[in-house]
Specification:
Elements lengths: L1 H14 L11 E15 L4 E6 L6 E2 L4 E5 L2 H15 L2 H25 L5 H41 L1 E3 L4 E6 L6 E2 L5 E18 L11 E6 L6 E13 L4 E9 L10 E5 L6
Antiparallel strand pairs: 1-8, 1-12, 2-4, 2-7, 3-6, 4-5, 6-8, 8-11, 9-10, 9-12, 10-11
Helix pairs in contact: 2-4, 3-4
Family: Belongs to the membrane fusion protein (MFP) (TC 8.A.1) family.
Organism: Aporhodopirellula aestuarii
Pfam family, one: BSH_RND
Length: 273
C-alpha cells in the first residue's frame, strides 16, 4: 500500500509539473519475488505413499518429489504386458491364412485343368477371405492390448509427482499417508530463485524512456551496490487509478545471494548501463 501511495503521489506531482526540471529523478520501490512460483499438483488422485523432499530442498526439473500409491496399476501393467506379448493367436491366424491361400491357388490350377468346379474354387476363395479377416481381428486385438499397456504406463507416470522446474521447495501441503483428490490436488510449492523478478508501478510520464530488454540497475535491501537488471515486460495498459504502468524487471541471481521478498528500489533517473 505504501508503494502504491508513493507512485500515486509521484504521478500527481509529475502531472502538475511540481518536479520542475529534475522530474525524471524518480525512485520507486517494490519487493523481489521468485521468477517462477509453481504449485505442484498430483495428476491422479490417491494416497501419498512418500514425500521425498522437505522445505528448503533444492530440486531439479523432472526430479521425483512424491509418489502416489501405484501397486494396483503395477499389477495391471504386468497383466497388460503379458497380454501384449501373447502372440500364439496371431501365429495360428497367420498359419490359417497361409494354408487357405495355398488351397485357393491349388483349386485355381485344378479348375484350369478341368479337375475342379467353379463352386470349389469359390469355396476356397471364401475360406481364404475368412482366414484373412480372422488374422486382421487378431492383429487389431494385439494393437488394443498395446494401447492398453501404454495407457496404464501413462497412468503410472502420473502417479509420480515430479518437479516442473529447477528451484527450491518452499512449502509442503501434504504428507505421506494423506489423500490427494481432484478438488485438492496441490502437494507442494516450488519456486525458482536463481533469478528473481521485481514488478514496479512506473509513472506513465516516464514509460517513454523505457523499452523491453533494456538493461538497468536496481538496489535491494542488504546491499549497498547497484545490481544489474533487465526490463522484461512493459504492460500496454495504464492503471487509471495510480497513473502508472506495470513494468517487470528480471534480476539474475545464480549464487542465491539476493533474497526473495526484500525491498527493491529503482532510480528511474539513473542512466541504464
Amino acid at each position: 500500500m505504501q508503494s502504491t501511495k508513493t507512485v500515486r503521489l509521484v504521478a500527481m506531482l509529475l502531472t502538475f509539473g511540481l518536479f520542475g526540471s529534475n522530474a525524471n529523478a524518480v525512485e520507486i520501490e517494490t519487493f523481489t519475488q521468485p521468477y517462477r512460483s509453481v504449485d505442484v499438483p498430483a495428476a491422479e488422485m490417491g494416497v501419498l505413499t512418500s514425500v521425498l523432499v522437505e522445505e528448503g530442498t533444492p530440486v531439479r526439473s523432472g526430479q521425483l518429489l512424491a509418489q502416489i500409491d501405484d501397486r494396483v496399476l503395477k499389477s495391471s501393467l504386468e497383466i497388460a504386458e503379458a497380454a501384449m506379448r501373447a502372440t500364439s493367436s496371431r501365429r495360428a491366424a497367420e498359419a490359417e491364412v497361409a494354408l487357405s491361400e495355398e488351397q485357393r491357388q491349388s483349386y485355381r490350377e485344378l479348375l484350369r485343368d478341368g479337375n475342379a468346379t467353379q463352386r470349389e474354387v469359390d469355396r476356397a476363395e471364401t475360406n481364404y477371405q475368412q482366414a484373412t479377416a480372422r488374422l486382421q481381428t487378431v492383429r487389431e486385438e494385439l494393437e488394443m492390448r498395446e494401447l492398453e499397456y501404454k495407457r496404464i504406463s501413462v497412468q503410472l507416470a502420473h502417479r509420480r509427482i515430479e518437479s516442473p522446474i529447477d528451484g527450491v521447495v518452499v512449502r509442503i501441503e501434504k504428507e505421506a499417508g494423506e489423500f490427494v483428490s481432484p478438488t485438492d490436488p496441490i502437494v507442494m510449492k516450488v519456486v525458482q530463485l536463481d533469478r528473481l523478478r521485481a514488478i514496479f508501478s512506473v509513472p506513465v510520464s516516464l514509460i517513454g524512456t523505457l523499452e523491453k530488454n533494456q538493461r538497468t540497475q536496481v538496489r535491494v535491501s542488504g546491499s549497498d551496490q547497484p545490481i544489474e537488471a533487465t526490463i522484461e515486460t512493459i504492460s500496454p495498459v495504464v492503471d487509471a487509478e495510480s497513473a502508472s504502468v506495470r513494468v517487470s524487471v528480471r534480476i539474475e541471481n545464480p549464487q542465491g545471494r539476493i533474497l526473495s521478498g526484500v525491498i527493491c528500489r529503482w532510480d528511474l533517473g539513473a542512466d541504464p548501463t
